[in-house]
Amino acid sequence: MSRARLGLAAGAAAVALAFASAAGAATLRVINRDGPAEGFNDPTPAAPVGGNPGTTRGAQRLIAFEYAADLWGRRLASPVEIRISATFDPLPCNGNSVTLGTAGPVSVFRDFAGAPLANTYYSAALADALAGMDLAPNEDDIEATFNSAFGTTCPFPAGWYYGLDLAAGSEDSDFVTVVLHELAHGLGFLTLVDVETGARFDGRDDIFMHLLVDAGTEKGFSEMTNAERRSAIEDTGFVRWSGAQVASQSGSVVVGADELGRVEIYAPPFAQPGSSVSHWSDAVEPFELLAPFFRGPLHDPGLAVAAFADIGWRVPSGPACAADCSGDGTVTIDELVLAVRIALDELGASACPAADRDGNGTVGIDDLVAAVAAALDGCAAT
């Protein structure tokens, strides 16, 4: 086994709160590295908003992280706790642009017991999951920093929305959405290729690049020379994801998938470190959580879950009990109310993924009937 330690991944930004998700899923824990009266500990009074009951800015940040982390925890499975080192600090921000944050895996691993491909790097959290053990027990898996100046001291005319209800205003950035997006990068939705030179990290493949193909040449990134990769990185409209799991779910893509179900990857005409070939294309419609730009609140990980399955994550099939949002084996009145609110389009399906039994992003009559039956007769009956 070999390990390489990384700096913060450029261009991404996210963390999640310490929490344990439902049995059989993943456990994510945030290590709050902020000092007193800052970041997660910011005592600035705040009115509860959008289902977030926190009464200080710091408390609302933590609650929103917990909500986002719970969503990812339910979508992925790992026997190893995923540790996230998290801080809020001032990052570049002016009246025209803002860096929301930075995040990425702390280390990557290759040739460990359980690695599906030899001589190929995997992000720390995924490597741990595949190995069935913590490969670096004395270090965190993901490191992340968010912009504490955004919405506070920064002149940019917007700020964070800490509600959980997808109701961010048109100018503000929905914090849960950004956390979900950036946490995905820390979990492995990124390539380690140097997009400015085409060179592989440490002269070896990473599992994400292994599934990138240039549809113009039909060459995979792992088959290319550095010069060929450098050219492909700017081959706008032609870089595709070749994984079978994404292809099997590409029917939901209206624009941005070819006849083989290969979904387009972001490859702008000028390479952008931290962004190029580490996102779905901005041309993909409906827009995806892992698009390169924030376009609005979105709590559904979408095709990223299938991409994670392609790179080796075990993806649970989901709770067997309709509307058992908490995964505790029972359906409460509050959980039924959540299901109804999703059906009425007051909340997104991510508010209770268990209510959306077929994973189509909506809750219909059949889903509601199953939820009521589970509440009345118990989960075993459904």
* Structural class determined from secondary elements: alpha/beta
Give the DSSP E fraction (strand runs of 2 or more residues). 5-15%
Q: State the share of residues found in helices, binned by percent.
A: 10-25%
The first-to-last residue Cα distance is 45 Å
Number of domains: 3
Shape verdict? globular
Rg over C-alpha atoms, rounded to the nearest angstrom: 20 Å
Mean pLDDT: 88
- Uncertain segments: 8-24
- The strand order across the widest sheet is 2-3-4-8-5
Query: How many beta-strand runs?
Result: 14
User: What kind of sheet is the major sheet?
Assistant: 5 strands, mixed
Provide the succession of SSEs.
EEEHEEEEHEEEHEEEHEHHHH
Question: Helix segment count?
Answer: 8
Describe this structure in words.
The chain has 382 residues and is of the alpha/beta class. The N and C termini lie far apart (45 Å). The protein has 8 helices and 14 strands. The strands form 4 sheets. Strands 2-3-4-8-5 form a 5-stranded mixed β-sheet, with helices on one face. The protein has a 4-stranded mixed β-sheet with strand order 1-6-7-11. It is globular and about 60 Å long. It has 3 domains: 2-187, no CATH class; 201-311, no CATH class; 333-381, no CATH class. α1 packs across α3 and α7 packs antiparallel against α8.
What's the quick description here?
The protein has helices at 57-75, 124-131, 175-187, 226-233, 244-248, 303-311, 333-343, 365-377, and strands at residues 2-5, 19-20, 27-32, 82-89, 101-105, 107-110, 120-123, 142-147, 160-161, 173-174, 205-206, 212-214, 219-220, 239-241. By secondary structure, it is of the alpha/beta class.
